[in-house]
């Protein structure tokens, strides 16, 4: 009966709406009305439209945004449906200060379990130090490059972005977050992890953006990484990210060939990806955007395919299929996102 219900629910999702993939090859300069990862999923390339945000901020000092995200996931002989509802309030005090408060509700129904939780996900203050420098402090969402090392909500910390010129941008982030780290095969220890990032991107001519960052997680893990987005043909991009842990020489990388555009209703992007995450590259998979595929004890190595389609101005749907050496079999994900 439960499997029948899940199948009916997924058919309904496919008929109703579609999600874009997020790849921030360059650093998105914070906009006056704020930003969060769920809202970013509605833009064509995963970045914010600063000009539209500025116009919105000028017209309204306080703005409320609501978004929902429903995800179906099947791994081996298990499946689950997770639904999230997010409410964000952005208040623009003046030309310098902006504040955001974000509330998140999440419920998850699995094959053998069910859970729900409420949390204050975002609560930050943002200030413009100058025309090309912005500082944000508080509990916030932080997404870095393609998300191998960092894609985490509710991290308490400070983030500064400095636009050096039209082609170069630098970013620094320092934050703390509570994470479950495996001590043994049967024991987990909750630790406060310190995360430090120094990130730099350069935009070349002809649709090429390359970046590099160094990062520290916890007390011993130190990373260096390179990433980029290269336009090889009209509507065709090659995206990649490579991360190495200097402490244990473990590495993780992902390469993507993406074609198409979903800026208009009915448009779609098609992507072929290859991912190789060595086990123990990171202490936990709670930070990475690929926590479904990768685990510290097993790792992941194999290809994936992603289709993103937009069927309305507010609704998108994403379908993912992954194959590889993960110890859990093929992975299927269908995600619906709607912004109100």
Structure description:
By secondary structure, the chain is mainly beta. 9% of the residues lie in helices and 58% in strands. The chain has helices spanning 2-16, 37-40, 50-59; strands spanning 62-75, 78-92, 97-110, 114-130, 133-143, 151-163, 168-182, 188-204, 208-217, 221-233, 236-245, 251-261, 268-277, 300-310, 315-322, 331-339. Strands 1-2-3-4-5-6-7-8-9-10-11-12-13-14-15-16 form a 16-stranded antiparallel beta barrel. It starts with a helix and ends with a strand.
> Which fold does the CATH topology refer to?
Porin
Spans of at least 5 consecutive residues whose pLDDT stays below 50 are 1-26, 29-54, 183-187
Estimate the helix proportion, in percent: under 10%
Write down the Rg. 19 Å
How far apart the termini lie comes to 32 Å
Query: Using DSSP, what is the number of strands?
Result: 16
Short structural description:
This protein has 340 residues and is mainly β.
Task: Outline the secondary-structure elements.
Blueprint: H1 2-16, H2 37-40, H3 50-59, E1 62-75, E2 78-92, E3 97-110, E4 114-130, E5 133-143, E6 151-163, E7 168-182, E8 188-204, E9 208-217, E10 221-233, E11 236-245, E12 251-261, E13 268-277, E14 300-310, E15 315-322, E16 331-339
Antiparallel strand pairs: 1-2, 1-16, 2-3, 3-4, 4-5, 5-6, 6-7, 7-8, 8-9, 9-10, 10-11, 11-12, 12-13, 13-14, 14-15, 15-16
